[in-house]
Amino acid sequence: MRIAIQGEPGAFSHEATLALVPNAVIEPCSVSADVFKALSEGSVDAAMIPIENSLAGSVLEHFDLLLSHEVRVVRESLLRIRHNLIAISGTSMENLDRVYSHPVALAQCRRFLGAHAKMRALAFYDTAGSVKHIVETNDGHAGAIASEAAAHFYGAEILQADIEDNPENYTRFFLVRRTAEAEIVPGANKISLAFSVENRPGSLVAALNKLSDLGINLTKIESRPVHGKPWEYVFYIDCQLHSREDGSSAFEVLRPHCAMIKELGCYREAGKTGNSD
Questions:
Q1: Could you tell me the mean pLDDT of each successive run of 10 residues in the chain, 277 residues long?
Q2: What CATH superfamily is the domain 2-80+170-267?
Q3: Phi and psi dihedrals of 245, rounded to 5?
Q4: Active site residue 153
């Protein structure tokens, strides 16, 4: 299966993909829009996208892209995020005066960086890309913060492992396929929906009360602005289900209260194992 990711090989999306689909062929893309373009055009079979981090919150762009493309979420996974200080082989920590990484990764390693004031934190476009950069430039005074997989992929060395501030650091990923090819998932017990409601008092509460009446547990709600319509919003929700039929019931009870509603996917809820099994 050819699976598109955003970022360089060795990124956390790469790691999450191989944990879920071990024999996948990874197709790296520079930006998330290219991931969805590749999927929509059929040059890949699926895409693996991060949707939420337990510390940094939601990846908002990906909600918009899920809504605007004919795709469905077919699997969910949780990946424990372990940040590592990485350098080219033969470099010691005392030699480093710069550390590159994605801004979120840098923010999640503040205590480590604060304890090593000599290391100037520099934002980079991608965690794995920062490792690629220091290896390609053969820079013995620069480090990178990224995954163990990135260190192995680019032939770099881990100087210190697990430097993140909080060990309860997980990223939730969605495996996404084209709607026409999205299989019905056996044992599906979670659904993601996007909807908008009429701009009148109590409309959102009325819609959510219908889910409550079904005994469906709402686990997440996120609002995003509607592009071109100031102060109008799309709501994204995740719900736990007792059965796949509950997902159809949720869709039907929400429909009368919604100006727009779309199922983004019905899948099995992931545990903290790095995969959904």
A1: 96 95 95 97 97 94 96 97 96 96 96 95 96 97 97 97 95 96 90 91 90 92 90 94 90 91 95 47
A2: Periplasmic binding protein-like II (3.40.190.10)
A3: -65, -30
A4: no
